[in-house]
Amino acid sequence: MAERGARLLLSLLCLTFLYPATTVSRHADKGTAARPFSPFWFSVEPWDTLAVRGAPTLLNCSAHSGDPASEPTTPQARVEWKKDGTFLSLAPDDGRRRVLPDGSLLISSVVHSKHNKPDEGTYQCVATIDSLGTIASRTARLTVAGMPRFSSQPAATSIRLGDSQVLACDVNPDLVPLARWEREREPLELSARLVQLPNGALVVSNASEADAGLYRCMVENAGPAKTSEEAQLTILPETGEERKLEFLVEPLPVTKVVGASVLLPCVVTGYPAPYVRWMVGDKLVEESEGKLELVGGGSLLIYNLTEKDAGVYSCMADNTNNTIEAQAELTVQVPPEFLKRPANIYAHESMDIMFQCEVTGSPAPTVKWVKNGDAVIPSDYFKIINEHNLQVLGLVKSDEGFYQCLAENDAGNVQSSAQLIILEHDVALPTPPPSLTPDTTDHVTPGSGGVANPTGPTPSAPRDVVASLVSTRFIKLTWRPPAEPHGEDLIYSVYYNQEGTNRERIENTSRPGEMQVTIQNLMPDSKYKFRVLAHNKNGLGESSAVLKVATQAEVQVPGPAPNLQAVSTTPTSITLSWDTPLTGNGDVLTYKVYYMEKGLDLEQDIDAGALSYSMMGLKKFTEYSIRVVAFNKHGPGVSTGDVTVTTLSDVPSAPPQNLTVEVHDSKSIMVRWQPPPPGAQNGEITGYKIRYRKGTRKSEAAETTGGTQLFQLIDGLERGTEYTFRVSAITVNGSGPATEWTTAETFESDLDESRVPDIPSSLHVRPLVNSIVVSWTPPENQDIVVRGYSIGYGIGSPHAQTIKVDYKQRYYSIENLDPSSHYVITLKAFNNVGEGIPVYESAITRPQSDPIGPDVDLYELFHAPFTPVPDPTPMLPPVGVQSSVLSHDTIKVTWADNSLPKNQKITDARYYTVRWKTNIPANTKLKTANTTNLSHMVTGLKPNTLYEFSVMVTKGRRTSTWSMTAQGTTFETIPSSSPKDVTVVSKELKPRTIIVNWQPPSEANGKITGYIIYYSTDVNAEVHDWVIEPVVGNRLTHQIQELTLDTTYYFKIQARNSKGMGPMSEAVHFRTPKTESSDKMANDQANLPVKPGSHQPPLDHGFGSPHGKPGIKGSGDTHILVIIIIVSVGAFTIIVVVVGAFLCTRRTTSHQKKKRAASKLSNSSHKYKGNSKDLKPPDLWIHHERLELKPIDKSPEPNPVMTDTPIPRTSQDINTVDPSLDNSLLQRRNSYRESVRNTPSAEPLPPQAQPPCSAEHQHPHPDPEGSYHGSTANDDEPSASGSYCSAGQPPTAHVRPTHPLKSFAVPAGPAANFESPALPSTPLLTQTGPQLHSVKTASIGTLGRMRPPMPVTVPSAPDVPETSKMLEDVDNVLASLPSCSSLAPRSNPVPFPQSYEPDELTEEMAHLEDLMKDLNAITTA
Questions:
Q1: Regarding beta strands 344-348 and 412-423, do their DSSP bridges make them parallel or antiparallel, or are they unpaired?
Q2: What is the mean pLDDT of residues 597-610?
């Protein structure tokens, strides 16, 4: 029996050890059961084919599905064919069309007629493996050649020797490759002279006698050959008579695919024989072997096209009499190519995946997706991202299969496939296997993978799943960790789906331990279900309960208008069209078209009632940005994206500018010019045409340059002959107007430029205060070329500055010199060989206060100049100065010159100086610019700034006075900086409410019309996911309510003006308190309301307080004032010290008894958490002549924003308000705030407890919520009150100080308003008299924290400690007085020096004597 029991026990032990091993093995097998991706793709795909009627044709196709030898289990693919998107039904008895074993389609006899074309169309090969899925090949076009037809036939013609001629033969475009020519019924061999054009015509160029004969055109296909009529070509001798140049064949726009060849025809006839050249853009086309070749006398043949070959080609034919030009655009298309192919993907159910597909091509390819051979229709769960990528949301098992990316454009189409395998949740996502083909990559979608070998318990369900933030399109979820996590650093997954759908999506937390996630891209006004699961190392845990949340509804405005198209129909008009918005949210009432010219910031709008609109009166060849907004009864909808369109070009409307001609030598003249004004070019300038003629002859010669060349050397001219020139600009539309004729005469003989010029024959200088006028004469040897003159100058040395001027110039004014300075000046003539010998001169500029007028030249009085100097009479200043504001940084200044002819044409060397400045007092620096025109564009100005402009004219050494000024204010533009000094503080007694303060941006660039406050709990969230609060532009503070406790929020602010939004400020974070109410918060902030009648314990802060915080010391001036007073009361010092010591001992005992009694009485009427000993009163400052109580908080800002807040003592000393409060207080609640600065006291006086007030005084007025915190901009103005007291409670209202040592019982006079420039202006309540009492405290920073003591400087006065002791004793005595005393106000901690009159000091001394008498009386008693 015992043996049997032992065996049974052994068997149980074996089972115990074997079962887990078996379980682990089973899990391991299941965890590695991910099947591999299947090798399934097309090895051969069909291509476009030209078939002949009645002949066989073959469309190739072959699918690869694995090697049967190595993979015998892989089934072979079944191949079918689609024609025009429909599967071909190939009956077994259909012998004409059949699928070959490799998958190719064979059509044994192509059928094609006028009314029956069963074989022509688009074909696609489809391969299927039943257990895997389906893939489709690229599409191929089958075209059937038609019957030959001649739309034009060759006709008998004649041609002169050396000339060109064209024999027509226009056939069907698809039969052109089958056309050929015969001469005398013999095949014609083509050459560089005999060229067949793309339309089939024959070009005979540089004709010879051998070219005469009968010509005919022939087309051969599968049937009998089709021949044209015969035509006789006759060769005529050249007579030498002039024949007009004309095109026989002009180039036409053509489109070709990359890698093909193209022939651009250009056949010209005329005599003298023309010279033909080609240009692409503004570059001359040069022949190159194997790439570019001129054939047929002028046609351009381009081999192996690339994208760079695209452009506008111009054929230009010239002879000595005329020039003609023709243009055509060559478009090069690129078939689609894959930059990134879709990859095979492993994933689990509920995941989101994305197939990436990047393609390139020209024109831009369109992409569509196919799943198992069927087109993917975009929906809420199948989305096309960035026009190319496919995103599948919330995977289900049926999503498995093959996905294909098909890209197509006019040049062709391509496809690439990828496989999706969905694994069970307990199967781990495998690592990526090697690529199946060079074109396929594999990857695993990131997410929660299965666990192959679970060895322990999984987490329980997460707790308390709540939606902490709900918007229209996102929801933020938070939760607590599971009760049984079974591990650390858990990862959480949120599963969610829209109510009514079965697809469940998953969103994982971004890092371990994170217990919040934001679900994006939700639908507005929709219900969603959420559940949360935790992962540990053992796997996925239990699911939380389902949470149902509904997103918020959006304003029902129209969506964007789709398919916005903009086409320029004329050089001055654009036609727009669009479709009705998909989400109109009601009837669309109207549309508004917004458009803006490129380079300008001014957007204009036009109302459009229909789905199209024609914009008229636009600028030629100008780029416009256009968008459309639909309006319904709710207002404007979502704008479309900007569409950019450029109006058509036109011929230039103005001639080139500044045409100059310069005689180069006896046989050539250099012509220079500038382009037409930008607004008159009306297109891209492709070239310039220079026409010139000799003397008064009517016959002209012409030369043409490229679009960027602004000069041309005209050579081959006659010696000593006068020529006239004019220039016109050319666009693709033709030539614009020409300049006026300009004359120049060639030299009789060539000048010498083999050596440098001689020394200038004279140099004369005329010094002024800030300039020196230099004049000279050329070298005496006139046979050497002079290209210009080099002027050097400097103080003591002529090498500091160098200026070069034209060879025609004889005067120059050196500006911006220092007065009373000795300058050395040198002048050298130079040419292309180098600089000649210099001539030196020196001059001393006149002193700044030179009494001699600028028109009197003392130098000329004593030194006869070598050459005469022009009369220095001042010129007339410019008139009619006007400023035209063009943009936010550009103003155009124009003027007229009365010293010019009526046509205002400048023919001499005068120039104008424009100067300008702003009206900003701190920036009065003048800026200047010189110009030779009657207008000047001033750029680089500041936005929204007023500028003043004036102009003067200079001609030689004559200048005018400055003209009358013109003013212009630049346009506004969006702010270029963000709001500054952003601070966030908590509102006292309202832990769910915060106050945001800021300052305007330093670069507002206009009037600020509003601010937008963004806040979020996730600093990395997208901008559109932040909650926004708009604020009007004249406010610099805002209150945000109903926030979540113990949560960190991030805040950004953005300023707005009339031009748009500026940049956002940096994020500022703030954490809300943990609880609604706590003793700690009440003690730290000390402003909880209490019941009437409660007593206040004595305040004993300062040097002797339990906090141990020192008082705040003031400035040095008030220290001196205290020392003076100390000397004045020296006779009382010893008495006060003795009496004070006695009173301190006595007062301490009495004071402690009163504190205990007050504490008991307060605790009897209030219930607080904790003991009264925890209620610490705030630190106090004493300023000026009265007590001032000020809590110090530990704000991190160096210059805290000042807000108005009454100062409570403790949580027990705040009484409610008597309803009979004076109405004047309520009127002051919304009064305007000002920035007020006060001076702190010079001595750190310790604050004292206040005596109880008489019962007849009224109580302060709390806010509606029972809080004593002063209101901010949003219903948060401070409560002003009179000088009220209540029994058992000191008043919390104060008045502004006027003197540091005035009596505590004497009422103060009206307070003066001081404003310190040291700090930025902050909105505060203005205090206008002693009847209005409020206290200004530094803004609260982090709750429950105190500001550290402010650093102070103590003057080295020997008797200061004794004085402080004396004043402290005086305060103790006053605290024991039974009467109600008025309290001192609290001042800003900003030093402000004050001065006092002798009468005031005398009065204060008398008052101090009265205090001492009271003190003696109390001591005696």
A1: parallel
A2: 86
CA–CA distance, 1312 with 1307 (Å, rounded to integer): 15
The answer to whether 78 and 84 have CB atoms below 8 angstroms apart is: no
pLDDT tens digits for 756-769?
Answer: 999 999 999 999 99
Handedness of CA 505, 510, 513, 516 (dihedral sign): negative
Give the span between the Cα atoms of 243 and 250, in whole angstroms: 18
Rounded average pLDDT over 1184-1195: 39
Strands 442-444 and 344-348: parallel
Residue 610 has, within 13 A of its CA and on its CB side, a CA count of 6
Distances (CA, A) of 59 to 122, 129, 135: 11, 21, 17
Residues 6+ apart with CB under 8 A from 203: 164, 165, 166, 194, 195, 196, 197, 249, 265, 267, 296, 297, 299
Residue 399 CA to residue 469 CA, distance in Å, equals: 33
Beta bridge partners of 842: 824
Q: Which helix (H) or strand (E) holds 1134?
A: helix 1130-1165
How buried is 657 (Cβ within 10 angstroms: 0-12 exposed, 13-18 middle, 19+ buried)?
middle
Kindly give the residue spans of alpha helices, DSSP state H, lying in 1034-1115: 1079-1085
- Residues 1300/1162, Cβ–Cβ less than 8 Å: no
Q: Bigger pLDDT: 412 or 1119?
A: 412
Residue 66: CB atoms within 10 Å: 18
Can you tell me the distance from the alpha carbon of 1303 to that of 1186, in angstroms, rounded to the nearest whole number? 8
Give per-residue pLDDT as tens, 320-371. Answer: 778 889 999 999 999 999 999 999 999 988 888 999 999 999 999 999 999 9
747: left (phi over 0), alpha (psi -120 to 50) or beta: beta
Query: Could you tell me which residues are beta bridge partners of residue 139?
Result: 124
Please report which residue ranges of 1088-1129 form alpha helices under DSSP H.
1116-1128
Q: Cβ(969)–Cβ(889) under 8 Å?
A: no
Residue 1212's pLDDT band (cuts 50, 70, 90): very low
Residue 348 contacts by C-beta under 8 Å, 6 or more apart in sequence?
395, 422, 423, 424, 425, 429, 447, 448, 449, 450
pTM here is 0.41
The DSSP code for 1025 is G
If you search the block for the tokens 């070598």, which residue do you land on? 866
Specify whether the CB–CB gap between 544 and 502 falls below 8 A.
no
Tokens of 576: 């727009």
**Taking 80 as the threshold, does the pLDDT of residue 1362 lie above it?**
no
pLDDT(140) > 90: yes
Say how far apart CA 1298 and CA 1239 lie, in whole Å: 10
**pLDDT at res. 914:** 94
For residues 1229 and 1278, give the distance between their C-alpha atoms in angstroms, rounded to a whole number: 6
Whole-angstrom distance, CA of residue 496 vs CA of residue 240:
91
5 pLDDT tier (thresholds 50, 70, 90): low
**Under DSSP, is residue 679 helix (H, G, I), strand (E, B) or coil?**
helix
